[in-house]
Amino acid sequence: MASDAVMEVRAGDQRVLLLPPTTRDAEAVCQVLANHGIVCAVYPTMESLCDELRRHGGVAMVSEEAITGDASFLIEVVATQPVWSDLPIIVLSRSGKERPSLERALAQLGNVSVLERPVRVTTLVSVVRSALRARERQYQVRDHLAGRESAETALRESREQLEIVVHGANVGVWFCPLPFDVLNWDATVKAHFHLPADAPITIDTFYERLHPEDRERTRAAIAESISRREPYDIDYRTVSPDGRNTHWIRASGRAVADAAGEVVRFDGITIDVTERVRVQEELRAGEERLRLAVETGRLGVWEMDLSTRHMTSSPICKANFGRSPDDLFSYEDLWASVHPDDVRRVRDAVQGSIEQNAEYDTEYRNIWPDGSTHWVLARGRASYDALGTPQRMIGVTLDITDRKHDEDRRSALLEAERSARSSAERAGRMKDEFLATLSHELRTPLNAILGWSQILKMTGTDSAEAAEGVDVIERNARAQAQIIEDLLDMSRIISGKIELDVQHVDLAAVVRSSVHTMQPAADAKEIHIETKLDARATSILADTNRLQQVFWNLLSNAVKFTSRGGLVRVALQRVDSHIEIRVIDSGEGIDPAFLPHVFDRFRQADATTTRRHGGLGLGLAIVKQLVELHGGSIRAESAGLGKGSTFVVSLPLSAVQTAPSPTPERRRSGDAAKLTVPKSESRFVGLKILVVDDEADARALLRRLLEGCGAIVFVASTVDDALELIAQEQPDVIISDIGMPGEDGYSLIRRVRALPADRGGGIPAVALTAYARSEDRISAIVAGFTHHLAKPVEPAELIAVVSSIGGRVAAS
Predict the structure, then answer these.
(1) What is the DSSP letter of 341?
(2) pLDDT for 144
(3) Which residues are CB-neighbours of 83 under 8 A, at least 6 positions away?
(4) Could you tell me which of 529, 531, 532, 513 has the C-alpha nearest to residue 568?
(5) Which residue of 38, 292, 381, 646 could cross-link 33, Cys pair, CB 3.0 to 4.6 Å?
(6) Which of 622, 454, 633 is closest to 553 using CA atoms?
(7) Are 329 and 311 in contact (CB under 8 A)?
(8) Strand ranges (DSSP E) for 534-600?
């Protein structure tokens, strides 16, 4: 299609465009030219002829009449034709004589041939062919100019593209005529050498900007390239004038020789490769770090050809399987070393990794040649060809045996910590429950005490109701004292400070005494206590009071948890080398879930606010500890809730039989027996006693008690008041609290003991305090007190102690 279009244009360019004088002339001219192979086109007007000339046409043939009439259109066409064009115009004149109007027109038309009519055929054809040949040469000039313009455009575009590439790639170009007097560098080369774009360049400038360590080898490389006519290719560093910036430059070039073979230039390019060098340095550093990491981390590297199963391993990889660096370690050796229990899992992991194009990552055991088992972590990945077929697999191994052992230890520690935390949380809950229970147990008797105290205030002390109130107050006060005693016992047991008064004891007598003590409580609930005591169960080595505490607790629980009309049995018998005491009740029984915790401190089967039975949950814990302190054991048995319970105490027999000592009754705060307070005491008459306590009620109670015994009592609420009374009254005995605001009892006794003997420094002193631990007693004695009594104190005990030290004073 393109070639056809060109031919049409070319054909059009060879036409003769005719504006004839007459129609007849048009036919004649066209016929003549057609006979000679020349195409002729006839146009009726000058305007239509010129329109066609602007598009096509080789030669214009017009009549003289058309020229002399209005030649402006044709003159315009001639004036606006391209520079390569000189349109041939043939004018058919009526006669050879040229008129002025014709001459003017011809002068403006340029390339004109005038033929006089009538024209000989040969002349017409010759002139037309000559004009067409001239037009053809013009067209050749046109095509030549167009080709050259196209070539220049292509060259310009190519040069522009090259400049874009050169500048985009940061490539600098240099041309250096020899000898190196002046160097021609573009702006990019100058920038590579830290120079401005307008800086003049000499060979000295070049070497000055080179790094000192690179100058000589660069000089040698240039000289060798010129002498051997070989390419010049070198990397060197350029340094800024202040020495702070350095570029790595790649320079490539060659020597250029003239026709005679003499080197006349040294040309080339420079490329800034600083980033490439930095990346290479980082890559080398990374490879070095990786190598060190692999070696330091004991990472073994392995590679396997998946088609041949050929496997290569690094020395560390072999070591991870118990092999030496020189050992052969094949694919078969690898699978032979995997623990039999892990083979299937590892094969599945490898196969799944290959099929899914995923990372292979697994841990497994391997058996070393010495038979030991080790853990290894293996990671790897397959590589594939263009068709997706797996070719190779490469990865690493790491011996994680120590880590696995550490994990096992951590798991054990974690489990222990979890258990300890659970125990701590349980202990916290037990503490909260215990504090709530303690509050309840302390407030209940306090409610009765305070209530009856108010009643006594209102009714006086002579009525029968007042006597009942006193009994209630005493009973509840003793219940509170028992709670405190249990807490102190547990504190002594926990701290290991409890001491046993061990002697030969008739165990049967202790049991009978405990039963006798609990009988009133059993009778109140119509509970029958049945005893069966083995005569063979003779004496044992024990603390009588502590054993009585054990059996009193067990019997108290049995009565408390047995319904009205129930049965409690106590059996004592000898079993081999020990004695067993069984306390069996028909009461509520013990939930099997709670049975393992029945002896735990602060634990109660029912710790809710709706529980039917009081207590702190300490009794059985104290019992267990006291029994174990005697070298014995205790266990609880129950068939379940509502089926009663059995407590079995096992105590060792004495190795030597001796006569047992009398069994004293252990006084408990809840015992029914009352101690009688004497109304007077001969040793108290005239005895001056100083009572020091910050509580007014406590001072009033002691004053009434002691004055009732005939003593002269002074009271003080502070240490300073007490010292003032000592100086004034010289008391015979001091009874002081320990915990007081400001200065406490310890401070008082130290200040008293610092006094001279004739001013009261040797007065006997009793510490009467709620600080009742054994260490509190020791602290009081060490501070200077003569005796230590714990609140609440039995009046008889206080009177006995004061009487004792008061008697010594009187005797002296």
Answers:
(1) T
(2) 85
(3) none
(4) 529
(5) 38
(6) 622
(7) yes
(8) 539-542, 567-575, 578-585
